[in-house]
């Protein structure tokens, strides 16, 4: 059993630079050089070009417009930025950003835990209720929170008991047979299991067993009483029955053979199923009702019903936010919105021992640029002028709501390191009778969880103001891309797309500069200076030492150079129309982009449109190393390890220049994506892949991705630091990031969809009173070229009771953490080991809950914490994803691609990826705007007469049953019946009827919400293409290996029992 998880980095107890006195990097005082890599000498311009220089032939020259500066007029000076934060009002009551004056989070915080957790419990445990009631000593009146942790079994607060299949009328959900809230008489009620309105149901409080309870005790207190008939967990064969003792029997075929499939094979996995063969030959056993195991769709629906449409105020420490799938509005009152930061649990254990005991990872998923919906307040901007932001002298934390003002307001104590600091004279303010500054609500940095600071020159590279970033479009013009029509498609699109480059709110046009390169074995740079009559091409054929052959005119303002650029974009497809060149280079292309940005002294992004594995003689040349024979061997990991050397160095160069790389791949065969994707995934970039690209079939998909990618909100040349209060710290980081030391997270760029997952470890005891505070500070350059600091603060609770941790868990955040750590671990360990660790850790987490937080009950019962009850379905789905499943039927590049893109995903994205939405459409109400409620991702939910939409944020399917009503087929596809549907249909006709309109509007709204575009695949039941669809039915046995949800749950149950014995 692994105690260490996957962490491949050195244990955090090792001495780390930056911890003692925070000597280096981001944390240093502004007077010192801020970045190691910034301190170096500016790179001198390389030797004169050795390439040719020739004008691009142009049929019609244009008169040169007046020469104008490319930069000057568009640089917005820092001071000129309009301050969004309104002038301080006279009274706090008139708080400009809607802050209720009487809800200071910090006065609530100290007593918050009990109250808010009561609230949490109230909202969390009613669905499934307490566990079994077999603790005779449990007194209904003693508040459980006061019970010592291990001396008496604490009550089961908000836990899920997996009982036997209901014997009465079938509940659509798991029936909690032993719950006082849903005992036998209630268990049969079809909606009791998770009915959203139960939380406030008046009859709940009046339940005989509940009367007179304190809220804490009442909620979770098991009521003594006989277990209902049929208790005993999954159908448990008695001793001597067929199968292993204690192993729940399943219908024939559900065990054994399936579990030992390629996805699950391995000592740890196969062990408990060794008797499978015996099962296989036996008679079918009673089948466990699939409705009785915890349902993600139900959990999602319940949370939406309970918390959807509400305002979530962030004034309480340790408050668990609504699920990512729930539609809610955030009001920042002192903690960062969950859109920016989500945690695996909102109550950290007080000691490292407890953390180790429960094995629940302590993590935060930080999406610093998350999109803020229009109905929420955008981040306020704070400018402290020349002095810059106020920071703690010792730990360098930024001024925030966790600073405690003392001494009449003359000093403040840092909430992170406890250092007492002087308040600068200009910042002095009196305190009120509560000890709060009277200007509390006039200053975002004192009252909000998230805000931005103006960064002074001290925070700029070489102490020089930053420049607006540049976007360089680099188009592979080799034979494949010309022939497919891709080059023409890109060039046409850019003519209009460049009008939509990101710009500062309210700015008339973008200050982002643009540049163009085409390449195959050699590179062509273009001078598109507005003064030119026509663009000029400069060729660099020596790719070994890449340089940019022109200083002026390569990076230009699109508005100013529009005519020349459009001229160029018109010519490019024709210039290479007759090319025979099929070989390409790749690393020199990136190198050229970095050099161009260096020369221009700016950050930026490269958009590379590439078709094939770079085999031309040049640095970074790759060869085909795909080998399916390695699958399920010790060496499988090598398929995912990038080729080092050139690409590693390139990543470093890119990051130090603030050069992000987005890669659009159009391969027709293996391209070694693991290596080609290495630079993008270390520079905050994205990788898009369109295999066997055809303009007609895939053009729109690609263009939608490109548009989203070019237009999205983004920051450049970013460096992030996560500070914590004493007793714990950030030790491990996952994301499209680069790290030169153990604390500074460097991102050449970070956009609105990129998240960094952070793991925390204890280095001392945490105090229940002060909680666990974290501050994420991101220094970056805006699309306008301004240097800014974006601060996100979050406060969590700490508890010596593990039950608090389990109650405050967030399954969606947990699975994000597990996915990223497993995908990293597979670079160093065999997949089998990684999968074993995943299962072991899951079993440990759940066993620890069982042992320490739930009432004693029959070992045959699977008891899950309420907040984690659907964790197993996500984990099982994770193990069936392409990267982890180990199947020779999947392309190595696809697996590498999935692995790399998941690395930077936020919680919303991993949630959807691992539990897709399956939406029934055949019964939709066309008169309503509502999207039909999703159903469980299982074949059992499909109906022959049905039509279903399935999406996971990456793929989008429309599945049609063979018996789909002809009228519906006619209305949606304009063909008379299922049989008339063409096999390769990939889009829906635009028809003027309610069904067609509604379906297309559902699809459009889905596409609109997702970070990347999805190509619609229309799948007919029993067609060959159904396999692609079926791998997303994550509750079923995986077509490439991996267990069904039901089998997996039984297996985990077994593992839990092993841990407990
Ligand atoms: Zn401090």
Automatic annotation (TrEMBL):
Q: Which residues form the Gelsolin-like domain?
A: 930-1003
Q: Which residues form the signal peptide?
A: none
Q: Which residues form the Sec23/Sec24 helical domain?
A: 811-910
Q: What is its main location?
A: cytoplasm
Tell me the keywords, alphabetical order. Cytoplasmic vesicle, Protein transport, Transport
Q: Which residues form the Zinc finger Sec23/Sec24-type domain?
A: 389-427
Q: Does the keyword Protein transport apply?
A: yes
Subcellular location, record wording: Cytoplasm, Cytosol; Cytoplasmic vesicle, COPII-coated vesicle membrane; Endoplasmic reticulum membrane
Regions of biased composition (Gly residues) lie at 231-243, 254-269
Is the keyword Transferase assigned to this protein? no
What's an example GO cellular component term for this entry?
COPII vesicle coat
| InterPro entries attached to this UniProt entry | ADF-H/Gelsolin-like_dom_sf, Beta-sandwich_Sec23_24, Gelsolin-like_dom, Gelsolin-like_dom_sf, Sec23/24_helical_dom, Sec23/24_helical_dom_sf, Sec23/24_trunk_dom, SEC23_SEC24_subfamily
Name it. Answer: SEC24 homolog D, COPII coat complex component
Native organism is Oncorhynchus kisutch (Coho salmon)
Q: In the UniProt record, what gene is named as encoding this protein? A: SEC24D
């Amino acid at each position: 059993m692994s105690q260490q998880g996957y962490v491949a980095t050195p244990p955090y107890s090792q001495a780390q630079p930056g911890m003692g006195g925070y000597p280096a990097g981001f944390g240093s005082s502004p007077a010192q050089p801020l970045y190691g890599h910034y301190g170096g000498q500016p790179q001198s311009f390389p030797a004169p070009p050795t390439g040719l220089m020739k004008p691009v032939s142009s049929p019609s020259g244009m008169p040169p417009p007046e020469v104008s500066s490319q930069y000057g007029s568009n640089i917005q000076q820092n001071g000129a930025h309009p301050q969004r934060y309104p002038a301080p009002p006279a009274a706090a009551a008139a708080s400009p950003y809607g802050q209720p004056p009487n809800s200071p989070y910090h006065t609530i915080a100290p007593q918050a835990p009990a109250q808010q957790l009561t609230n949490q419990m109230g909202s969390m445990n009613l669905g499934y209720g307490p566990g079994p009631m077999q603790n005779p000593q449990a007194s209904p009146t003693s508040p459980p929170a006061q019970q010592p942790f291990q001396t008496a079994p604490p009550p089961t607060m908000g836990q899920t008991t997996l009982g036997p299949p209901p014997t009465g009328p079938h509940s659509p959900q798991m029936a909690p047979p032993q719950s006082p809230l849903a005992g036998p008489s209630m268990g049969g009620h079809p909606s009791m299991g998770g009915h959203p309105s139960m939380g406030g149901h008046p009859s709940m409080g009046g339940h005989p067993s509940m009367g007179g309870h304190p809220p804490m005790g009442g909620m979770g207190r098991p009521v003594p009483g006989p277990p209902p008939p049929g208790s005993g967990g999954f159908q448990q064969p008695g001793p001597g029955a067929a199968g292993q003792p204690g192993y729940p029997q399943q219908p024939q075929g559900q065990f054994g053979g399936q579990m030992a499939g390629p996805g699950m094979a391995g000592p740890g996995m196969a062990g408990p199923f060794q008797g499978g063969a015996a099962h296989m030959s036996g008679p079918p056993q009673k089948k466990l009702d699939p409705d009785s195991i915890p349902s993600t769709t139900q959990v999602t629906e319940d949370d939406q019903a309970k918390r959807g449409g509400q305002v979530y105020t962030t004034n309480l420490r340790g408050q668990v936010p609504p699920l990512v799938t729930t539609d809610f509005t955030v009001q920042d009152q002192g903690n960062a919105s969950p859109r920016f930061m989500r945690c695996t649990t909102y109550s950290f254990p007080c000691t490292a021992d407890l953390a180790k005991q429960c094995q629940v990872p302590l993590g935060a998923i930080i999406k610093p640029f998350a999109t803020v919906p229009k109905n929420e307040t955008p981040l306020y901007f704070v400018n402290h002028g020349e002095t810059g932001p106020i920071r703690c002298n010792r730990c360098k934390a930024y001024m925030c709501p966790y600073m405690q003002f003392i001494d009449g307001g003359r000093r403040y104590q840092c909430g992170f390191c406890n250092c007492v600091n002087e308040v600068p004279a200009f910042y002095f303010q009196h305190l009120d009778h509560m000890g709060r500054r009277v200007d509390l609500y006039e200053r975002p940095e004192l009252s909000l969880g998230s805000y931005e600071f103006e960064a002074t020159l001290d925070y700029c590279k070489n102490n020089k103001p930053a420049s607006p970033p540049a976007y360089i479009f680099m188009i592979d013009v080799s034979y494949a891309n010309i022939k497919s029509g891709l080059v023409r498609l890109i060039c046409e699109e850019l003519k209009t797309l460049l009008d939509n480059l990101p710009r500062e709110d309210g700015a008339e046009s973008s200050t982002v500069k643009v540049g163009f390169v085409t390449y195959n074995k050699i590179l062509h740079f273009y001078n598109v200076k507005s003064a030119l009559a026509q663009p000029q091409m400069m060729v660099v054929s020596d790719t070994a030492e890449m340089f940019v052959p022109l200083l002026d005119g390569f990076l230009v303002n699109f508005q100013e150079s529009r005519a020349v650029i459009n001229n160029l974009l018109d010519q490019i497809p024709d210039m290479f129309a007759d090319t025979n060149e099929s070989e390409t280079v790749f690393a020199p292309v990136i190198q050229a982009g970095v050099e161009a940005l260096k020369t221009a002294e700016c950050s930026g992004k490269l958009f590379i449109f590439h078709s094939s594995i770079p085999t031309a003689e040049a640095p970074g040349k790759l060869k085909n190393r795909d080998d399916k024979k390695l699958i399920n061997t010790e060496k499988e990991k090598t398929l995912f390890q990038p080729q080092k050397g050139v690409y590693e160095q390139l990543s470093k160069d890119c990051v130090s220049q603030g050069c992000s790389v987005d890669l659009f791949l159009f391969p027709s065969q293996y391209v070694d994506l693991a290596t080609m994707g290495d630079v993008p995934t270390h520079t905050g970039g994205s990788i898009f892949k369109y295999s066997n690209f055809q303009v007609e079939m895939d053009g729109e998909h690609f263009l939608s991705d490109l548009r989203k990618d070019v237009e999205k909100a983004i920051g450049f040349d970013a460096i992030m630091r996560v500070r914590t209060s004493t007793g714990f710290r950030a030790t491990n980081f996952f994301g499209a990031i680069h790290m030169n030391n153990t604390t500074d997270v460097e991102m050449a760029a970070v956009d609105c969809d990129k998240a960094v997952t952070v793991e925390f470890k204890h280095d001392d005891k945490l105090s229940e009173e002060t909680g666990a505070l974290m501050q994420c500070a991101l220094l970056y350059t805006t699309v306008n070229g301004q240097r800014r600091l974006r601060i996100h603060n979050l406060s969590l609770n700490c508890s010596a009771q593990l039950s608090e941790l389990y109650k405050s868990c967030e399954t969606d955040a947990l699975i994000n953490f597990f996915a990223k750590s497993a995908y990293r671990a597979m670079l160093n360990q065999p997949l089998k080991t990684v999968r074993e660790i995943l299962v072991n850790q899951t079993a440990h987490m759940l066993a620890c809950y069982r042992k320490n937080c739930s009432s004693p009950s029959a070992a045959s019962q699977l008891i899950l914490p309420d907040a984690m009850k659907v964790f197993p379905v996500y984990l099982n789905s994770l193990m069936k994803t392409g990267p982890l499943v180990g199947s020779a039927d999947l392309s190595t590049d696809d697996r590498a691609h999935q692995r790399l893109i998941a690395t930077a995903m936020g919680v919303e994205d991993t949630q959807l990826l691992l539990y897709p939405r399956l939406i029934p459409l055949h019964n939709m109400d066309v008169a309503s705007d509502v999207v039909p409620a999703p159903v469980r991702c299982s074949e059992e939910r499909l109906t022959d007469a049905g039509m279903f939409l399935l999406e996971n944020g990456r793929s989008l399917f429309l599945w049609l049953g063979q018996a789909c009503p002809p009228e519906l087929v006619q209305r949606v596809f304009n063909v008379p019946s299922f049989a008339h549907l063409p096999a390769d249909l990939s889009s829906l006709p635009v028809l003027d009827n309610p069904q067609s309109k509604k379906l297309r509007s559902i699809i459009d709204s889905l596409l609109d919400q997702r970070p990347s575009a999805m190509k619609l695949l229309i799948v007919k039941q029993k067609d060959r293409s159904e396999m692609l669809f079926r791998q997303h039915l994550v509750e079923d046995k995986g077509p490439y290996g991996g267990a069904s949800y039901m089998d997996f749950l039984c297996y985990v149950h077994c593992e839990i029992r092993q841990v407990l014995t």
